[in-house]
Design a protein that fits this description.
Elements (H helix, E strand, L loop, with lengths): L7 E3 L3 E12 L14 E7 L2 E6 L2 H14 L4 E12 L2 E2 L1 H11 L7 E4 H11 L5 E9 L4 E8 L26 H13 L2 E5 L6 H12 L7 E5 L9 H8 L10 H9 L4 E6 L5 H14 L3 E7 L8 E5 L12 H4 L3 H13 L10 H10 L4 H8 L7 H6 L4 H4 L14 H10 L3 H10 L8 H7 L8 H12 L4 E2 L8 E2 L2 H8 L4 H26 L5 H23 L5 H18 L2 H13 L9 H14 L3 H18 L2 H17 L3 H18 L2 H17 L3 H13 L7 H17 L3 H17 L3 H18 L2 H17 L6 H18 L1 H11 L4 H6 L5
Parallel strand pairs: 5-7, 10-13, 10-14, 11-12, 12-13
Antiparallel strand pairs: 1-2, 2-4, 2-5, 3-4, 5-6, 7-9, 8-9, 15-16
Helix pairs in contact: 1-3, 4-5, 6-7, 7-8, 10-12, 16-18, 20-21, 21-22, 22-23, 22-24, 23-24, 24-25, 24-26, 25-26, 26-27, 27-28, 28-29, 28-30, 29-30, 30-31, 30-32, 31-32, 32-33, 33-34, 33-35, 34-35
């Protein structure tokens, strides 16, 4: 049978001709391609595309094979049929049709239509082998074409034990020991394990490392298949079939042939980088799991497969140290070890030392621990030192690029890695992501529904988009919260901000976020005194970066400064609970000095708050200044409540300064006013603060009367923190009176409540009170251990002792050293570093 194509239809300036049309595309296609002349009719080359026409299908196939050898990485498609030529060239419709066909090809692939395959076989016979890919729509012609893959140009499967995976870098594997342990455990528990992470997190490297360690457990070792070049679900099974070297039976399906081949084997099947073909990958994995009982599967992808048997392992960024840690500890973290290893490839003399450890730690933190980003940053050590690299983090996407050209495009730079993952999101998820960037802190899906709604993101569509972002790891879980909350990493936030239209989205949503912050704080302020204080502290903590930014923005303008004062007076309990005192004082000072706030109804209260914060930080002169200013202002406006609060502020400043008698006088005056006004809650607070000073001065009779009065009032009027303080100060008084059993009971209650409230400052004060009681009882070892635990709690939160607390600690340390001896003291102190705060009291019942 003759395969030549004959016949034409012509009109004015145009002709329709039967031929085999070829398109070759590549990012940098040479313009001087040597085209085999046999049966060549048309040549058009330009803009990374080349179009050819041949009178026979076999000549078209042979020519394309030659062309792809000249242009590595190019892809091609051949359609055979009637094409319209304009002046001996392909018209726009014909070119669009050919481009539709080549769009489904991957680099190095040659696709051919069914007529091309059938006609070429008359000349080439068995010399050409094709794999059916299925029917594909050609949008420009509104038709479907059955397409085939020319098998002769595709790679063969690699024995995983004999050849390195081509996707791996030549550099050594660093860290991830915990992750490897986790994956080994999961592979023992489940036949299907999915390693889930965005591009650049090191999925492939981790999977290959695991393969090296576990493949000897399988009789038939392991098989690794890279699916990154496949863009269509229907291509998964044919590609795997081809890479496994399997011949399917006539009329049989690709999946059946794969399952039949693997059914008797005992191996680890690794399917990597299948994020673009999740549906096809899911079909393949499900079939293998059902009919191949001795095959275990390890999948690397951006999203879970959502199969019932799937064990999901979400790979995170490398652990990053705090810059406050010792430099010798910093260098042992995986992120730092990776940076060091890659930096030494370009600068063999590079070392982590005292001078640069904190800078490299900060750099790795800014890069969110992403291995690819850390590697790219380390490669710049040849031209920049770590500090210079850190200073350029706002421009990280331009800086962090691979210049070798030896890696896939999706791994050639930090921008490319994020953009690759971003391109795989649903359209709803891509629309929601810039809206979520309005949140500075951690947010829940409920917060997103309140703030980020849009006409095309309503109801279930927003939930679906949120879930898609979480599945793709664009949302990072915040484990420190009981409620499920997420944050955006700095890298993702910068990527989003660089997208067109992101600024207008943020401008639109910031007023909505401001209203959300106000509603949140108004609800929280009603709950500070209730049993739900812990929950609301957590909710405010999650939103605090947004609250802080809202306050700062409002304080910039005198017209909105009054709103800022309202927010400050709602949020300040959080500052004390979480010891954000320095930041709180700075914000309050800006509010006090801002024009437009002096006529606020609660201006005296604002000044009083400044006094309390200054006292807590040890700035007693500022505290007295603010309290006196508040008192004068309250007297001018004849506000008795604020007058009493000002006396409390003066009492706090005096107490922290060690002037306890003066503090007692101030608190007694405040208590008298609160008592007259019937303000039981504030009366209790004034009495509580008086009691502790009475105990220190051995004014036990008056202190006991005030303590009994406070206890007689309704404790539920106090917030949980205030109620716990009542028990703490009561323990001090009772211990001074020698009632150690009652003191132990009150102190245990206080410590347990402060632990629940996550209030490390007062946890440490409870422990120092316990040490004080132990000391009075002569239990010097227990006193030393209690002080050690208190010091550890302070250090873990980077909290500073107040001046009088430092003096008392020094006194106790000296006395205990004298009683125990230096060696026993050091041993007891070391033991205290490993004792839980609650255990300090629960194990010592002889108080």
């Amino acid at each position: 049978m003759d395969e030549s194509l004959a016949g034409s239809a012509s009109g004015t300036g145009h002709s329709r001709t039967l031929l085999s049309a070829v398109v070759v595309v590549a990012p940098a296609l040479p313009t001087n391609l040597a085209v085999p002349p046999k049966d060549l009719l048309v040549t058009q080359i330009g803009d990374g595309r080349a179009f050819f026409a041949f009178s026979t299908a076999s000549s078209a196939l042979l020519a394309v094979e030659s062309l792809l050898k000249q242009a590595p990485g190019a892809s091609a498609a051949i359609l055979t049929g009637e094409f319209e030529l304009e002046g001996g060239k392909f018209g726009s419709n014909a070119r669009s049709l050919l481009l539709d066909a080549v769009a489904i090809a991957e680099p190095g692939q040659i696709l051919a239509s069914l007529p091309t395959v059938e006609l070429s076989r008359t000349s080439l016979g068995d010399a050409s082998r094709f794999e059916e890919l299925g029917n594909y729509p050609l949008a420009s012609a509104d038709r479907v074409e059955k397409m085939y893959l020319l098998v002769g140009l595709t790679p063969k499967v690699v024995d995983a034990r004999k050849s390195p995976n081509p996707g791996l870098r030549s550099t050594c594997f660093v860290g991830r020991s915990e992750e490897l342990d986790d994956l080994r455990r999961l592979t023992n528990l489940s036949r299907l394990v999915s390693v889930i992470a965005p591009s650049g997190y090191g999925k492939t490297a981790l999977i290959m490392r695991l393969r090296e360690e576990v493949e000897e457990q399988y009789l038939d070792a392991s098989i690794t298949i890279d699916l990154s070049s496949i863009a269509h679900d229907d291509l998964v099974a044919p590609t795997v079939l081809r890479l496994l070297g399997i011949q399917k039976n006539v009329g049989g399906s690709n999946l059946d042939a794969i399952v039949s081949h693997l059914s008797a084997k005992n191996l680890l099947l690794i399917l990597d980088s299948g994020e673009r073909v999740l549906l096809g990958l899911r079909r393949l994995v499900d079939a293998v799991l059902q009919d191949c009982p001795n095959v275990e599967i390890l999948v690397g992808t951006h999203k879970p497969l959502r199969l019932p048997a799937e064990a999901r392992y979400r790979l995170k960024g490398l652990e990053v140290p705090s810059i406050a840690e010792d430099w010798r500890v910093i260098r042992d973290y995986d992120a730092i070890a990776l940076f060091t290893d890659r930096a030494q490839l370009v600068d063999p003399d590079f070392r982590i030392d005292r001078s640069n450890a904190d800078v490299v730690a900060a750099l790795c933190h800014r890069l969110d621990g992403i291995p690819l980003a850390i590697e790219l940053a380390a490669s710049k050590v040849s031209i920049l030192n770590p500090r210079q690299i850190l200073d350029r983090m706002e421009d990280r996407f331009h800086l962090l690029k691979d210049r070798t050209g030896s890696v896939p495009k999706r791994k050639s730079g930090l921008w490319e890695a994020v953009a690759w993952s971003h391109s795989l999101l649903s359209s709803e998820a891509r629309a929601l992501l810039p809206r979520l960037a309005v949140f500075e802190g951690a947010f829940s899906i409920g917060d997103a529904e309140e703030v980020c709604q849009a006409p095309d993101l309503a109801g279930s569509r927003l939930i679906s988009a949120f879930e898609d972002l979480a599945d793709a790891s664009f949302l990072v879980p915040s484990p420190e919260f009981h409620e499920k909350r997420f944050v955006l990493s700095e890298t993702v936030r910068l990527f989003v901000s660089s997208q067109e239209g992101s600024k207008s989205v943020l401008d639109e949503l910031r007023p909505i976020r401001e209203a959300w912050c106000i509603r949140l704080l108004e609800r929280a302020s009603k709950e500070w005194n209730g049993h739900g204080q812990g929950l609301w502290l957590e909710r405010v903590e999650a939103a605090y970066p947004d609250i802080r930014q809202t306050i700062v923005i409002q304080l910039r303008n005198r017209r909105t400064a009054r709103k800022a004062v309202d927010l400050i007076l709602h949020v300040f309990p959080y500052w004390f609970a979480r010891y954000y005192l320095t930041e709180g004082l700075g914000i309050v000072q800006r509010a006090i000095n801002q024009q437009g706030t002096a006529n606020h109804p609660s201006y005296s209260r604002l000044i009083n708050l400044g006094s309390s914060l200054a006292s807590s930080l040890g700035d007693y002169s500022l505290a007295r200044l603010y309290s006196r200013t508040s008192l004068r202002h309250a007297l001018q406006v004849q506000d008795e409540h604020q007058i009493a609060c000002a006396w409390c502020g003066l009492g706090m400043a005096a107490g922290f300064a060690g002037r306890k008698r003066s503090a007692i006088r101030c608190y007694v005056r405040a208590a008298s006013i609160f008592r007259q006004r019937g303000d039981k809650a504030n009366l209790m607070r004034a009495l509580i603060n008086t009691v502790v000073h009475r105990a220190d001065l051995e004014m036990l009779e008056q202190g006991r009367q005030e303590f009994d009065e406070a206890v007689s009032l309704d404790e539920t009027l106090l917030d949980p923190d205030g109620a716990a303080t009542l028990h703490l100060n009561g323990a001090r008084l009772l211990a001074a009176q020698g009632e150690y059993a009652s003191a132990h009971e009150h102190l245990s209650t206080a410590l347990e409540r402060f632990e629940q409230l996550r209030n490390p400052l007062n946890v440490a004060r409870c422990l120092r009170t316990a040490a004080h009681i132990f000391f009075r009882r002569g239990n010097y070892l227990q006193a030393c251990q209690a002080l050690a635990v208190a010091s550890r709690v302070h250090a873990s939160q980077s909290l500073d002792l107040l001046e009088y607390e430092k003096k008392r600690l020094d006194q106790y340390t000296q006395v205990l050293t004298n009683h125990l001896g230096p060696e026993t003291f050091r041993r007891a102190w070391a033991e205290g570093q490993f004792i839980d705060p609650i255990t300090v009291l629960s194990q010592q019942t002889d108080i």
